[in-house]
Amino acid sequence: MPKVYNWQIGREMDYWYEESRPRRQAAAVFDTNKCIACQTCTVACKTTWTSGKGQEYMYWNNVETKPWGSYPMGWDVNILKMLGPQRWSLEGERYVYRGKTIFEAAAQSERVLGYLPSDLDYAYPNRGEDETNEIVVEEKFYLRMPHDLWFFYLPRICNHCTYPACLASCPRLSIYKRPEDGIVLVDQARCRGYRECVQACPYKKVFYNHVTRISEKCVLCYPAVEKGIWPRCMRTCIGKIRMFGYLNTPEKADPENPLDFLVHVKKVGLPLLPQLGLEPNIYYIPPIHVGNINFLRMLFGPGVDQAIQTYNKAIAGRDLELVAALLLNVSTDRIMTKFKVIGSSEVAGYDENGHEVVRIPLKEPAVVRPFYDERLQVYRHNIT
Amino acid sequence: MAERKRRRALLRMGAGISKSARVADRLFLPVVAGAALLTMLLTVFHRQIQEIVSPSPQPSGEQQGPRADVVAYTVDKVPISDPDSPVWDNIPHSRISLADQSIIKPLKLNVPAEPVKVKAAHDGEWIGFLLEWPDSKADTQAIKVKEFRDACAVMITSYPSPPEARFMGTANNPATILHWKADWQIDIEEGFQDLEKAFPNVSVDMYPLLKESIRDGKPPKTVDIPEFARVRLPGTWAGNPVSQLSKASPVEKIVAKGPATITTLPTQDAAGWGRWRDGVWRVVLAKKMKASDGQAGEMVIERGQTYSVAFTVWFGDGGDRGSRKNPSMLHTLYVE
After folding, report:
1. How far apart are CA B310 and CA B87, in angstroms?
2. What's the confidence (pLDDT) of residue A137?
3. Which of residues 24-43 of B touch A (CB under 8 A)?
4. How many CB atoms lie under 10 A from the CB of residue A63?
């Protein structure tokens, strides 16, 4: 198999095809600290793309509660169990994954290590919702950071990976990665429903349509993206957890690009299960309140400790630029390729033509009214 | 004294001899066994290589035409959709061994124990093949994620053709493939196998623009999805032959120029029908001898000519699909 470079694991790895990066890569950063699992993203996607017959069980976007939630059931633990314990090592200042990716761990007769979920695996899309990591007992139920009792929400869509397992696994060549934006698509005219992609995708984000008998997946709302507009799941986000844009490779990182800034400069955006080797392009700001750091290291790789530290610094008001970048989340539905802090009070975002598409204050202006209004002679319940 | 010395020396010698003899004894059996195993392996390997380089005609149950593995005999009328027609009874069969698929990943490495029995006939207008293979279970449904259908195929390309033509033709030797699918047949036989067939208790308030399609909700039922609602069925809307709800024939006519190149031909005039009984599939696959899609590379079949032909079977319950299949070697087909 050809060797390709995967910067997320810090080394070359085996892949079915030669390295062929798109001209630019559509990517997103999800801030798990802000997700409230309202499922608006899920519903936005569902009503847009998968309301047809045969698509009932499909959630191209879903939000699961970690640690117990997963859709399809056990997608993450199943593939991690198949892969077995693996190792990262710190070499100099960077972490290098010394274990096997799902391409390297595949049997001789297969292209990718994977499995097909059963109907039951798909039957409980919101299993484990709001369940804490342990049973709630009184002595542990007090507030400190990070929490002994915790859960967090993990919104998931197709990762539009740089090295997609679905694409590698398709013997029919029905899956392609668009050179213009890196969106991974299943050719609906070409697919023959072999479900090799369903089996290969470790994130289980390719779905088999029961009626058309071929496979479908998240299209990252490409008709919108082509017009410079965010995908629907992202622009409807109530919690404003999402930032959508284009991501460069680390050596070409542009600190003015909000995606590069979050992922490469501040390193708060981390890939989901980078050890699988797909170089996924949806990044996550890890939750800062989770008591089990090893769980987060398993999910987001060894960069978790640093990311949490940096994020905490921003919360404490000691990183204005990071606060500014995070405030741009879902502040507009236009794709921004640049952002700039203006003075020390505002942040602006610019589209690829340099037009300012959004400008927001770093601190929301608030007027504090007196609790007791002399003129009207009333007490106010809400003074801000 | 001298006698004692001599005896001792002899004893020592004897001891030496018996020691080396013991070593030889110990090594004899493993060496012989090893040599036998090596010879066996070399023979098998040599045969396999030979088989790939120049496939020899398979030993067949009955005698066929001159030097061809399969002969298409002349009949009055080919029973193009009847595997039980008495016409087939009078045609001798060829036993074609199915191999593993060890070239294009994902591979299928296990091989069915029984060969496929092949009969061929033509009537000047149609050429038909009857494939017969044991399969303990008929898998006719591909609705659930882990369900795969039974299928079989006949591939015809020119003769002689290079060995790599076995893998669905080459750029210079396009192959015509007749592909029978058990789920397509049952869609025709019983009506489109909709969602309710696999999930009888499925309950949905309504499908946007699809209300008409769930009128009775009882499987099996015929297609009643209004034309304007097909946009909700992406594969159907995109014209994918796999996703069409009404199918004219269980046999798809395909042209291929190597792995991953199969293309549904514009004129779908192939015919066929399968019947599963007592653990055996018997499937007819037929095409017109004149090529209706000649420009797209469909093979013309002429009397007195020889063609290269291969047969493939997919076992649905084994998870077979796409490249996970049991193809035969490239054989010769003589059209009487």
Report:
1. 23
2. 80
3. none
4. 24
Q: For chain A, which residues make up each domain, given as ranges? A: 17-315
Domain regions of chain B by residue span = 1-53, 57-192+246-335
Mean pLDDT across the stretch B65-79? 89
Distance (Å, rounded) from C-alpha A150 to C-alpha A102? 30
User: Model confidence over A125-143: pLDDT tens digits?
Assistant: 999 999 999 988 877 666 7
In this prediction the ipTM stands at: 0.92
Query: How would CATH label the architecture of A17-315?
Result: 2-Layer Sandwich (3.30)
Structural tokens at position B300:
């013309």
Whether CATH 2.60.40.1190 fits B57-192+246-335: yes
Residues A109 and B109 sit within 8 Å (Cβ to Cβ): yes
CA distance B156 to B108: 22
- According to DSSP, the β-strands at B306-314 and B151-158 are antiparallel
Of A188, A193, A196, the CB nearest to B142: A193
Q: What is the DSSP string of B121-150?
A: EE-SSEEEEEEEEE-SS------STT----
Flag if A193 and B242 touch (Cβ within 8 Å): yes
A214 touches chain B (CB under 8 A): yes
Q: Residue A173: its chain B contacts at CB < 8 A?
A: 260
Q: Tell whether B322 lies on the interface with A, counting CB pairs under 8 A.
A: yes
Residue with tokens 């390309």: B157
How far apart CA A318 and CA A178 sit, in angstroms, is 40
Contact B106 A119 (CB under 8 A): no
